[in-house]
Specification:
The structure is a homotetramer.
Chain A lengths: L5 E2 L5 E2 L9 H4 L5 E4 L3 E3 L11 E4 L5 E2 L7 E6 L7 H15 L4 E5 L15 E2 L2 H4 L20 H10 L4 E6 L1 H17 L4 E6 L15 H20 L4 E7 L6 H10 L4 E3 L7 H15 L1 E7 L4 H4 L19 H16 L4 E5 L2 H5 L5 H19 L2 E2 L1 E6 L2 E6 H4 L11 H10 L12
Parallel strand pairs in A: 7-8, 7-10, 10-11, 11-17, 12-14, 12-15, 13-14
Antiparallel strand pairs in A: 1-16, 2-6, 3-5, 5-18, 8-9, 17-18
Helix pairs in contact in A: 2-12, 4-5, 6-7, 7-14
């Protein structure tokens, strides 16, 4: 997999930041600065480090590609809501305007659809005045939408028409794939267009990136639902609180929320295949012993159980698989199970997804989003393209889009992290009865 | 309707509170002190006040009926969770123990079922130590359940066996009806049993009572969901945020939350009959004009629309009508409507009920619950029975159970209060197109 | 004391609200509708009600005094910050604009000083667009200041110059006194000026009014400081947490916060004279027995102890007595006391005043403020003057300014309410050792 | 500086964790596994990595030093409160008890003083039952105190008497220095005692460690005070909001809070020497231009300005320099400055320190604290001593105490991070007028 970064061309303009730093030399970053992909080694053997896998460091360049006085920027937010979107938008605008002196920043509305001439969605010109307070609100002031990437050429037509030189795309997998295609079409057309992505995944499931924005806020919000489920479970005879949290392929939110609260008895994540028999049996055991139980299920768990008749999954406009509702499914099946057993239970099902994802960013995400926006602008002004802004070993990095979307990040079920969850819940290591000890 | 209060008998014991007050005379309340039911009058005509409708004031009596050293108390919480249950339990225990010197306080678990000998649910003896911190948690430490009133005699058997003299019942309509029956059976059996209710209705729909505990907390929690719905609605093209809030027969929570937030465009409550055609037409108009909308629906609205085939409604164990889910219904129907019209919308449905009702009490409810518990103990120790503790014109009162459950409190749709909601949302006055202006 | 209301003149204009209500007749309020000052009576004697003391009901009048198309309104906020100020401003603007059709609403900046021509503070024209979201922020968008009432004539000059017909003044004692003087000067000059006050006192100490806005929010915020004081006190050997809360003459915030939290051991309010010897002795006793203590002191307590040399108290620009800092005083004296005794303590002093008063309104205050603003506009448009909007027995009322400021509301230390505090803390009934039992 | 770790002796016991993991081999960590101190390199030159500076990885060892059935553990919390203390205590107890099967865990009360036989402070035996819910509360259930390290021998006497084999010390600089001395004395006496520190510094100023627990919670709490200061500043003519935050030598909390809020105009940290003239001049300029200002000052800033007469600073029982109150100093001096200039200002000073440090941990700190406790137990059971648990490049590490306390971590004022603060506030780069541009 390629870690190298594409540049639009030679950087000929002196950065206007030069005069803003106390010690500019120590702040500017050259393209040759890297951070190792893997800083861990075994000192017992002759230690060997793999230098071929490393990320280019992000940060301001002493010379930049675009002339701030002439460059036109565009910002687009795509896909589902995620805490921090407004923070990133605000940061890009403030950084571009006040530090680089950019005056033309176009806000593209409702995702890629806002670039589709057939949709005729008016863009909004972004100014510091307009974005000053948006970070105190959840959601995205630009609006968002799924899809819109069916005809990339059309989108590039609009970018060309609007003379956009730097496109900041904030979105997930599908969005980044679209961003990559836009960069490619632009290159073929010979356009002077840098495409810089800020990866958005509330699930925290992008590889080669320590942490994605909005994820910490999501965990902080999710604890309220686990609290409610716990209170409800204890408040009724054989009470069961069932919470569905985000996590399509990766259970980081469910696992972290479980660790943060210590009240969950069963944490179900996509990485651990769910066997209903084993799970129901463990649940019954818990109910009989303790009289209540709390279940925290990531939305992506048990998708194989939901429908085994059609072998082609539905997809939404972003080409994401449309997930069937594991929460409603589990609620129904658990009730059926105990009904059959003649055990009266009181199951309360909570689905807080929209409450979570529409929350304003927590302070740590607010800072992180502000930084992501700033590094994105440094990258864009330097003519970096086809990249996303990453974070690795607490440093901000440039990651090729292709690398970023090449594989997902999963919860390693052999890690101490997941083992902590197992210990916190007391649940079996696996639902595969052969493996369970 | 009768406003008079039944007493178990003559009060012969000097209240142990006598020596605890700085000026006891000014604190003790005699049975003859009343507060007018209706303090409003028209000064233009010869003013006339109706003295026959007034409430007995609650408060400590100088002489009490029960001997604190010998009295046995019981506490039971019934029905769905409501913020403040633990506060009331704690207050009854603390007040009984520390102010009256009562040493025997039985916590009956899981509602009236905890009194059913066939269920064999062990009670818990309540002490200050045990309840000291429960008010910081939502829910009820005793557990709750619906129903259990099928055979009142069985329940009274247990009360007799446990020698309970004062039964504090915290619950809604069905619970209070059960409490009344228990009081009657006890009277017939010649038992020395006072039954004192603390009315619990998160919907705030009990008549003859200003405000019920948990209601303010519910509104304070509900605003988070309206916030989320608003952010989601603005974040997508033709976004619609739909929130279902509590309110089976009365829309106080939905109406107050709407007033507190100013972001709702349609507030649907049971008191205003819902006509889908008129509503959808207004919704479409809003979407076409503004591109997004927020709907706040009380759970009891539109029940007539949900099913017109079966003319007998299902009932739960508390004999409450089982409501069909208007939220899911509206979500489906709205999507169908716009689908048929060829208008693409993005509807996000939020059901925060369990998160709301399991919240710990807000500070004002915490104080209110503490007072309700204290006044309940004053009433119980004085041998008042078949009553609930009420609040009227900012004074605490004794209200006969029969009166309290004789009629519901509704949002008056001719009031300024509801008119404020109409103005805040901009919605039509009525869905009946003949009445709408 | 006079309960009668002054009207500017005959109401000749049909209210534009007439066509907005479903049943206007049931919503409009005539001037003859009243609510009793005292709805309590003793049924044992021949009940007698005092009809001479009653409040005129607030609400929309069918005929109004001012022509909405020509009326000019002004809004001013004075004195210290209080949660809900922006809610009231917003409500007055929205109500005036959308319901009555008023188009001229002047926002006077920085209190009465904004009317002083010598200060040359530009006013701001208020529109729905400008105030739409201000209720989500604490503070006041108009700014506030103390004083400015030295020369009332100057202020009326400006009102005359700006052709203001209705002046909405939001402020406390001093502000209302100023409002009264403005109304009088205007009357003498024959100006068509209605002066309508919305009483602002976070201390909740205005008589003839159930509750003042911001007070519930203040209690809700204050609990965080008591929590912190409790944690600090338990976290150190002989830890003492000392919190100073608002309450210049009346201890409602301190008392209510104490009741809401149950962690306070000493609640000190101005209504109970503080004797240091008795207090320190009780505190020492608590420390020796339990190893920690929490003290909640209203700012107005013990002012007599602070300085007995100068017999003339300092006053600020609003002519309020400048309070000496009882918090710092107690911190010093307590440390000295235990130092002298050779007992090592760890005292942590918390002063959360600015954090509390700058908070956005809690949902219940948000609703209350919105209503206050609406009733103020009904009153102003009807030509009521020299009044404040009150609340009594859950109804909104008109109260003559003179009556409202004629006496303060205090915590009745012979009430059950204060007795509850005594019981919650375990502190002595009084610091006067002769009275203590 | 030495990165090597001291072990008490050979590990002969099979870890009881062996049978708890799905794939034990992938979870256990050998002593030879390391993480590089510096994973950054310059790819332009021949890249060279310094393997001599690396941290030993923390984690469970396959063989352990202590026999779980016989080992006696002790936990002590020292110094000021910090969010997460209870989380760490709980985690150590749960991990020791449930995963390693340890049954003897002594809670030492009130810091090192709890080990001083002369103080006669009874310890408390810790069990899962006792600590189950403590993580929901701020503070430390063990109590804390400063100092107590005057006679290390006495403390070791007690440890010896109580037969403690692993001492977990949670505290800051002074505490860790004490821990180091305890380890040394124990070694000289030939005791089988492992001393494992969990570094506690709300200021986040420990070197060789990415992040310290409680720091994120502190920032999350601090934003409320900045909010209040901002509202107060805007609410009065020439309003100035002044907030003092924690940060004795390092301004991380002040800087991060400034970045998270975007409302601060002057962020004053110890790393940037404060010159009053330059600062007041910039403040005056801001006030004249904008009419309000918000100042966020770390407690350690400007200490040189407070007192230049005595050249020996006072020290508290932990041998920390007692800081003079820069907040009160600035409040006084700013008022004096503007008074002299004849400019009327309204300065509101907020000191939220105790409210911040007594808060319960935020979810991310809750998880982090739980992990710190777990890794500490892994280390202790493996016989690691004289170390603290660190975190580096998102991995948990063993750091020699001596290294951890050898130097402080400061805000690098030449970094992008600090530059972001400069840009967010608009303040000068430096108060040294020669350097300012």
């Amino acid at each position: 997999m390629e870690f190298g970064i594409r540049n639009l061309g030679e950087c000929r303009h002196i950065s206007p930041l030069l005069e803003k730093f106390l010690s500019p030399k120590s702040v500017f970053v050259s393209d040759s600065r890297k951070v190792l992909y893997n800083p861990e080694f075994d000192g017992g053997h002759s230690p060997a480090i793999d230098f071929t896998h490393s990320f280019e460091l992000a940060g301001p360049r002493e010379k930049i590609y675009f002339d701030p006085a002439r460059v036109n920027c565009g910002i687009v937010t795509c896909g589902g809501l995620c805490p921090g979107l407004n923070d990133v938008i605000r940061s890009i605008v403030m950084q571009s305007y006040y530090r680089y002196g950019v005056r033309s920043i176009t806000g593209i509305r409702y995702g890629y659809n806002g670039l589709n001439p057939n949709k005729a969605i008016e863009p909004v010109m972004l100014t510091p005045q307009l974005v000053r307070n948006i970070h105190t609100m959840g959601g995205t002031m630009l609006g968002s939408s799924r899809g819109g990437t069916e005809d990339i050429g059309l989108l590039v037509d609009t970018l060309e028409k609007w003379k956009i030189n730097i496109l900041y795309t904030i979105g997930g997998d599908g969005t980044l794939r679209g961003a990559k295609e836009i960069a490619e079409v632009a290159r073929k057309r010979g356009l002077d267009l840098a495409v810089v992505g800020i990866p958005k995944t509330i699930d925290n499931d992008i590889s080669f990136i320590d942490r994605s924005f909005g994820y910490q806020t999501a965990v902080a919000e999710a604890v309220h639902s686990i609290y409610a489920a716990h209170v409800e479970a204890e408040g009724a005879p054989n009470g069961i609180g069932l919470v569905k949290l985000m996590g399509r392929y990766s259970g980081f939110i469910a696992a972290s929320t479980t660790l943060a609260m210590n009240d969950v008895n069963f944490c179900l994540i996509p990485e651990v295949p769910l066997k209903l028999d084993a799970f129901f049996s463990a649940l019954e055991d818990r109910i009989l012993r303790r009289g209540h139980a709390v279940i925290c299920a990531a939305e992506g768990v048990g998708q194989d159980l939901l429908d085994n008749t059609s072998n082609k999954a539905a997809r939404d406009a972003s080409n994401n698989v449309v997930f069937k509702d594991i929460g409603v499914f589990l609620k129904t099946k658990i009730n059926e199970y105990f009904d059959k057993k003649g055990i009266e239970i009181n199951l309360k099902y909570i689905d807080p997804s929209y409450i979570i994802r529409s929350a304003p960013s927590c302070p740590m995400d607010a800072i992180f989003c502000a930084q992501l926006g700033q590094y994105a602008v440094h990258a864009g002004m330097a003519g970096k393209t086809d990249i996303v802004i990453g974070r690795w070993n607490n440093m901000f990095t440039h990651v090729p889009i292709e690398l970023a979307i090449s594989q997902r990040k999963f919860v390693d079920i052999n890690s101490l992290f997941w083992n902590n969850v197992i210990e916190a819940t007391g649940q079996p290591v696996s639902w595969d009865t052969d493996l369970t000890r």
